Amino acid sequence: MKTESGATLITNGTLIDGTGASPIPDGCVVIRDGRIAYAGAKLDAPETPEDVRCIDAAGGTIMPGLVEAHFHATYFNIRALEDLDIKYPVEYVSLLSSVNCRLALECGYTAARSGGCLFNVDVWLRTAIESDLIPGPRLSTSGREICSAGGLMDWNPEFRKIGMEGLVFIINGIEDARKAVRALVKDGAEWVKTYPTGDAAAPDVNDHHTLCMTFDEMHAVVQTAHNHGMKVTGHCRATEGIKNALRAGYDTIEHGTFIDDEGLELLLKRDVPVVPALYFEKVSVERGPEFGLSQRVIDGHQETLDGGAASALRILRAGGRVGMGGDYGFGWNPHGDYAKELSYFTNVVGFTPLETITCATKTGAEIMGRADEFGTLEAGKLADVLVVDGDVIADISLLENRQNLIAVIQGGAIKAGRIAPRQETVMTVDG
Fold first, then answer.
1. Cα separation of 199 and 212, whole Å?
2. Which tens digits make up the pLDDT trace of 66-110?
3. Which residues contact 125 (CB under 8 A, 6 or more apart)?
4. What SS3 string covers 86-147?
C-alpha cells in the first residue's frame, strides 16, 4: 500500500493519541511522507513547509484509525449461518467482500483482523488492498476456519454426503487438525480460526455446556501453526473451552464469555487479548424475532450477552487486554454498524470512552501484531488518522455515523470522509 508523499498538518482539534493518555486540547498532527512526524500540543509543534496541506478538525477530534479485530469480509448480511455455504458462488462472494472492505474503510476502520473468511478470500483481499487495487483496511488474514465434526459450523447431516469446503475444515482428530493448518499455510493465511466451543446461535451445541474440540486437537493446531509463524484464535464461550485454549497456547480468545477465576489467571499470566464481540449478542436479542430466531436461541443470546459483558469488564479491570470487533455481517448486525460496538461498551458495559478508544486502536493493532506500525498517533508510525466532527470523548456515538468523519487518512492519504480523496491512477496487475 502506497503512502502519500508530502506534508499534512491537522489542527484545531482535541488529540487522542490512542495510548490511553489524556486527550490534548488544541492538539495537532504533522504527517510527512505518509508517516507521523509529530503528534501533540499545537504549541510545541515543529515548523511545517509552506506547501503543507492543512486539514481543519473544526474543533472536533483527531484520533488514530480504528481497528476492527473480528472482521468477516465474506459474511454478506446473512439471515442464518446456513446461508454461508449455499447462497452464493465464490465469484460473487469475492465481489461482496470487496464492497464490505470499502465500507469498513469509509466507516473509519483503517485496519482489520479477519475472524474467518469463505474460500480464503481474505488472502486475496489483502493482496488487492496492499496493491491499491481496491480500498479497504490493512488486513490480517485467517482464511477458512477449523471446526471439529459435529461442532458449531458443521450443520450438514451425514446423509447429505457433503462437506463445508468453502467455509471451514471439518476435522476428526489431531492429524486432520494438522492437515487443515498446513492447507492454510500454503494459501498464505496469517491466523488460524478454530471453534473449541458451541454458541447460542446453535441450540444443539449451546454455550458453556459444550466443548466442540478436544484439547489434543487444539494443541495440534497451535503446535503446527506456531511452527509456521502463524497465530491461533478460537471461538471460546464455554468456561472449559477458554481454559483449554489458553493451556494449548492460543494467541487470542474470541468472546471469552464465561471465563472463571482460573481462566482469568491463565489469561493474565500469558497476557492474551480477548475480543468479546458483544454488540452481535445485543442485536440478536433485540431483532431476533424479526429474523425468525427461536425464543430458545434468543434466551441463549441474552445469557451470552450478560455473561460476556461481565467477563469483558472484569478482564479489563484486572489489567487484561480487550479488542473491539463485533461479528458484523448478519442481517440484524450488518456491515457498516461497526462503531455501535464502541458505544455499547462505553454506555452499557462500563468502559470509559478513553478505554474503549484505546481498545479499538492500540489493542487492535497489538492483536494484529503491528503495534509498531499503527494503532497510536506517535512519531514514526504510519499516518492512519481519523478527523471527527465533534467531541468523541463526550459522545462516542459520533463514530457510528460516517457523515461525522471529516477525513479518514491511511498512510497519509485521504481515503474517505468529507474531504474528497485525491484521484489515483489505477494500475493493472502484472501479466
1. 10
2. 999 999 999 988 887 777 766 678 899 999 999 999 999 999 999
3. 73, 97, 98, 101, 117, 134, 136, 139, 141
4. CCCCHHHHHHHHHHHHHHHHHCCEEEEEECCCHHHHHHHHHHHHHCCCCCCCEEECCCCEEE
Secondary structure of residue 187 in the 3-state scheme: helix
Residue for grid cell 482535541: 14
Cα→Cα distances 110→322, 370, 408, Å: 18, 13, 8
Q: Which helix H or strand E contains 170, and what residues bound it?
A: strand 168-171
CA distance 70 to 275: 7
- Pairing between β-strand 35-41 and β-strand 24-32 as defined by DSSP bridges: antiparallel
How much is the mean pLDDT over the chain?
Answer: 92
* Angstrom distance (rounded) from CA 219 to CA 248: 5
What type of residue is 85? D
Average pLDDT over residues 268-293: 95
As a whole number of angstroms, the distance between CA 21 and CA 122 comes to 34
C-alpha to C-alpha distance for 212 and 49, rounded to whole angstroms: 60
CB atoms within 10 A of CB 320: 21
Segment 293-341, tens digit of pLDDT: 889 889 989 999 999 999 999 999 999 999 999 899 999 999 999 999 9
Distance CA 299, CA 225 (A): 36
> CB within 8 A of 424, min separation 6: which ones?
132
**Dihedral of CA 397/401/405/410: which sign?**
positive
In angstroms, rounded to a whole number, what is the distance separating the alpha carbons of residues 82 and 324?
Answer: 26
Cβ-defined contacts of 298-302 (< 8 Å, 24+): 299/200, 300/199, 300/200, 300/201, 300/203, 300/206, 300/207, 301/200, 301/201
Match 455455504 to its residue by C-alpha cell: 85
Q: pLDDT tens for residues 164-190?
A: 667 889 999 999 999 999 999 999 999
Give, as one character, the DSSP assignment of residue 428: P
